[in-house]
Amino acid sequence: MTSLLGYVTGPDGLNILSGLINTIILWLVGSAFGAVIGFLIAVARRYGPRPLDLLLLGYVEVIRGTPFLVQAYLLYFGGPYLCAGFGETSVCLTLDPFAAGLLGLSIYGSAYYSELFRTGFDAIPRGHIEAATTVGLDRLQTLRRIILPEMTMLVLPSMVNMTILMLKETAVLSIISVKELKFQVDIIGNRDYAFVESFTILALVYWALVEICGALGRAAEARLSRYRFAHS
Amino acid sequence: MSLAPAIRARGVVKRFGQTEVLTGIDLDAPRGEVTCLLGPSGSGKSTLLRCIALLEEATDGLIEIDGEPLGFALGPNGERMRLPAASIRQVRSKIGMVFQQFNLWPHMTALGNVSEALVTVRGMSRKDAEAKAMAELDKVGLAKRAGHYPSELSGGQQQRVAIARALALEPKIMLFDEPTSSLDPELTGEVLNVMRSLAGTGMTMLVVTHEIGFAASVGSKIVFLDHGKILVEGTPDTVFGKPRHPRIDQFLDTYLDRGAAGLL
Predict the structure, then answer these.
(1) Cβ contact (<8 Å) for B101 and A135?
(2) Which positions ≥6 away from A20 have C-beta within 8 Å?
(3) Is the pLDDT of residue A226 over 70?
(4) In chain B, how many domains are there?
(5) What is the ipTM of this complex?
């Protein structure tokens, strides 16, 4: 039986490292896509026509209402049956595991991030936007110069929280054979029947990443704290 | 030829659902003078000011700023029609607005708040805008606080920055919506002093306020609203002097009860 350290430094180390790299890529890129799509959803729901708002509300409800595990399965195994015809050719949503995983994470994250941004929009005092209107800023300028920065500081703590959750959701992707950290650790566990060792490694790595993310979040909050809302 | 009044409102009606907040207001604010809107809470004075700032759209009626129609104008068949966005922007640029809650942007310094629209809207270079913003902050006595964020300023200082922010755009008319209602008496004094010296420069001002003393001493015209219509208007002497409208008597009594007799 190999020790905890033995797996990391031994021949499995490289597999664990490649799994870790994949996990970090899925996490960061999935979170970034999720946040950007989520922001666009929040903007579209706020400024777009009512039917679009309802359509996106449905999207958010479905994604939030079902487990990520189920979404990943349906996207990877059901995607190839989702086809769109363009004249002679038809294109289906057939994705390799990594691409399906990244897309799934982005979709999953976008629903939650959009809700964060929506509440962020609502929390900005109306007067701050009226002040922008009276000095002549147009809608886009107000969004870019006033709403976005104010919302960033309002939603930052919840964003950090959600991004931490996104990291841990990447573990689910092992079931559609994405070669991320959990996938690699499963191999060791199954081969040597060393689940305690391998899953301890898994837990420690996730925890370390979460701590790094949390520390970055706290540093950002400290930097933004002087922007806190002023009181009379 | 006499110039049109700085603000001319005719038949302004504002309804929120079934509630009629303004029931047909005719108001003239003369150029270069301070017009004060007084009245009890819910009388519609803030709503009228917000209609003139086009933060609310009047349900009916027409408003002219400096002789130009604001937001709506009469069409060829006498119907009220909405003006294009470019016209709204152009007329709006003549107006500066100061709010009860200051509404400084918390992520920008005092200098950033004042220079923002100069860069974003007027297209000035950052350097020129900041020089101009600095001069405006100096006028309200806050040049030394230019680098401070709103959360690092007192309420009175925040409101003075807000006044500088509006003045930086060189408006022809300044609107004040209860500018001192969130301030304690000491801070109220510093804001009123800035407003008093602004009035001294000949700025046209329309001020919604509960500061009767300020209205009586600085205002050249008092407009008293009650239940969405103008009850009395005139110079401070005619409005506050005797004989007084009984409703004004009643209104003033609440101030005298609070020991403000000396102000009048």
Answers:
(1) no
(2) A181, A205
(3) no
(4) 1
(5) 0.90
